[in-house]
């Protein structure tokens, strides 16, 4: 995951606090009000957080922000942990292997 600016970190903390409390994801307007910025900047900030892997956006749904812990969804992380136990490889080795295989397939096209 990429680093964040102080404002992006504030935005992420606000989103995380709302979602951890069991509330619905905040709207762009609520984020803008909390950070004292305009709504369009809140929109840009949320999408920057998604691009950096801290959150994900669920398509075709209002208030569609979901947290991504450690850059991966929980099912993906659980699958990697299981595969690591089965193969005896580390998580990083498995990710590197998957990337290499993906790139090889792309080159063959």
UniProtKB/TrEMBL annotation:
Transmembrane regions: none
Alphabetical list of InterPro entries matching this protein = LexA_DNA-bd_dom, WH-like_DNA-bd_sf, WH_DNA-bd_sf
Q: Which residues form the LexA repressor DNA-binding domain?
A: 1-63
Q: What is this protein called?
A: LexA repressor DNA-binding domain-containing protein
Origin species: Bosea eneae
């Amino acid at each position: 995951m990429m680093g964040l600016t102080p404002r992006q970190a504030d935005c992420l903390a606000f989103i995380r606090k709302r979602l951890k409390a069991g509330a619905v994801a905040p709207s762009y307007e609520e984020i803008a009000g909390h950070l004292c910025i305009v709504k369009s900047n809140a929109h840009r900030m949320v999408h920057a957080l998604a691009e950096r892997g801290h959150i994900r956006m669920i398509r075709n749904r209002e208030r569609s922000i979901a947290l991504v812990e450690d850059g991966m969804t929980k099912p993906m992380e659980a699958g990697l942990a299981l595969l690591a136990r089965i193969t005896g490889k580390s998580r990083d080795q498995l990710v590197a292997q998957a990337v290499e295989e993906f790139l090889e397939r792309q080159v063959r096209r």
